[in-house]
Write a structure and sequence with these properties.
Blueprint: H1 2-12, E1 20-23, E2 30-31, H2 34-43, E3 48-51, E4 75-78, H3 80-83, E5 92-95, H4 102-112, H5 119-134, H6 141-154, E6 161-162, E7 173-174, E8 178-182, H7 190-201, E9 207-208, E10 212-216, H8 223-239, H9 268-273, E11 276-280, E12 294-296, H10 311-322, E13 326-328, E14 337-341, E15 352-359, E16 362-369
Parallel strand pairs: 1-3, 3-4
Antiparallel strand pairs: 2-7, 4-5, 6-8, 8-10, 9-10, 11-14, 12-13, 15-16
Helix pairs in contact: 6-8, 7-8
Length: 370
Amino acid sequence: MKVNDAIKELEMEGRKAAALLVVSPTYHGICSNMDEICHICHSYNIPVIVDEAHGAHLGFHPELPSSSLSQGADLAVQSTHKVLCSLTQSSMLHTQGNLVDRERISKSLQMLQSSSPSYLLLASLDAARAQLSENREAIFDKAIDLTLEARSLISKIPGISILEVPSFSSFFQIDPLRLTIGVWQLGLSGFEADDILCNDFGVVCELVGTKSFTLAFNLGTQRDHVLRLVAGLKHLSQTSHFPQPVKDEGKNVNHFVCLDDIRISMSPREAFFATKRKVSIRYSLGEICGELVCPYPPGIPVLIPGEIITEEALNYLLEIRSKGAVITGATDFSLSSFVVCSGFGYSLSSKTASLRAFNGNCHEPIKGNW
């Protein structure tokens, strides 16, 4: 396992990991094998911290994956409001075992949290806890049944693909309440499909990508919501142009971009206080980003202040912008320019790159020596 390899590499360098941070489940509901990960880390006395923002419901139904805590995690951070019924902004931090110093955590929280917490948020957390405790065995029955019904109906619609565990040997488990739907065979981007579903059918997606979108089923989901979703997808299938068929359609849902060429030149704090200037996108490669560039949905930053602007990030941003993504955080949401930190910059590539500039609905390629 890569976790074991990473720990051994650190040992060879004379270092030891302070902790292991795992995101499980992901936005798409993909869960890691936390039992095996925790077993490996604990054999080295390394605590495991799990970003379980989308997994506050795990373990509360036989059809749901196990929670990270039940598999041995030392700390689990949950955004309770994302799947359960607490108010937005409310979350929980769970801890167990003796590898983590609870007193240090308490002192850290005292430094970061408000001394005047919202009792509305706290009360909503307690209400969500009580709701689960009163009916923990059956509370998700309806939501899971509706998800299964949706999967069955959607699987019969031409040109639509659904992300399933069997399509990916590396998947351990997937949350059945997350439904990722691919629409690329219809000649549509996820952003275009999202616009139609939202505006014409009242269906709101949780996450939107270039070729797919993800839906979150929860305790508030009703059968009417499923029927509207199915009607919307049938409409997309009937009105869209079908390009060439794609082989192994299940595996082609796996197009989620992973930007691995991430280079940080300065801390976000240093970038925040640095002198800045605006540059055309054609001259931005190698500059240090001075703003947050964040496609929405889902609101995950592609560039943060202090990060070097790479060709990989630029190409991705321009691609999703051309497909209808909304860019937040950037001063120029059309992405014809960036705010960068003055007096800094790096030569990342001397080759000629081709990107796209945007002028309304006209997408003209710009060629330049970056």
